[in-house]
Write the structure tokens for this entry.
Amino acid sequence: MSFKSLGLIPELLKAVSKQGYTTPSPIQEKTIPIILEGKDVLASAQTGTGKTAGFTLPLLQILNATRKQRHRPIRALILTPTRELAAQVHENVRDYSQFLDIKSTVIFGGVNAKPQIRTIRGGIDVLVATPGRLLDLENQGALSLGRVEILVLDEADRMLDMGFLRDIKRVISMMPKQRQNLLFSATFSKDIKKLAEGILNRPVLIEAEPENTTAEKVNQKTYRVDAGDKVEVTIKLIADGNWKQVLIFTRTKHRANKLSEKLVKAGISSAAIHGNKSQGARTKALAGFKGNKIRVLVATDIAARGLDIPLLPHVINFELPNIPEDYVHRIGRTGRAGASGEAISLVDVNEKEYLRDIEKLLGEKLSSEIIAGFEPTAKLDGSKPKQGGGGSRNKKKKPRPQSNSNQNSGGQNKSRNKNRNRRR
Ligand code: AMP
């Protein structure tokens, strides 16, 4: 199957080949012809499947085929849950439309609205937006959705998780009833189905791959450790493996900051990315990570969702997520576009239940290992969990005091670990 056989016009084929894509991904094979026919689509696709090109390419072709008006009203709206995803989707829109007379822009909160308003006033065909800023600007009269022909809801499940349902409904009430709707979601929960019923008109159901196939591509491993050893183990893994690009997940913003600080102290360049960081800081951290200037990006689930980090070799779950689906999203950051990846989870005794839920979702047991010198004092099986057991989902765990973890700094991890191993 080629992009040409999907019916794309030469300008888009040229843009696609400039990106280095040779063959369409499975989701692209399915969505492109159907969207080109003008049908509504309900697609299950995770980040990493090529879904963005799957909806952007046909959307651009449709807009290009019909007559444009000189003042360029907004004709296509792509809604995304996070600022990062909005920025990435817009980058894709720009890349794919570079040989067409189509203008696009992106708007999201956390940055000055004035330049965004100016750009929109200048006329744009495709708007990528997060719901909050979009409604803000609409309320101010800075934009109108009265001429939207195509609506895309990207990562709709995450938008619902983040409480955007009311915002989405308001946005929809501002658009013409006659329009094409494309809804992309990693999961098809009851809520998503309900949302889809209210928005989509006789949609074609598309499933990119069965749920969790990303997980199958990734080499997954768990290490049983004590909570208080996790920082040292993380440093050891990165230093011993000489890993150059590692994405680490924590459950909380605070832990993301703390871990990042400790890695920096150990001589491993790192930045944290989460909801409390300013947009500028998040963009800078991501750019530094993508450009190999920062070895480690420590992220919370929401901040990492939808990040486009191609060919990421290593993911570490410093803490397991309490929502099992988030595990699949996390490890979906590695092994992308056919490349193999490794996802390591550091599991302490209090995370027993999280692990059980994840394994239930995956339908398999994850391999479990112990690192010499960091043997856990409490075993997951057979011992009494601390703090009322692994079921303490909403309680913040207090990690054991770090043993010597900050005494050495500046790239001496290996010798520190050797010392540690001797001690034990
Ligand atoms: P997405 O799922 O849209 O976030 O895309 C994941 C990654 O795959 C991005 O880095 C895209 O640039 C890349 N990609 C999208 N389509 C293709 C394709 N047909 N061939 C190779 N890479 C692709």
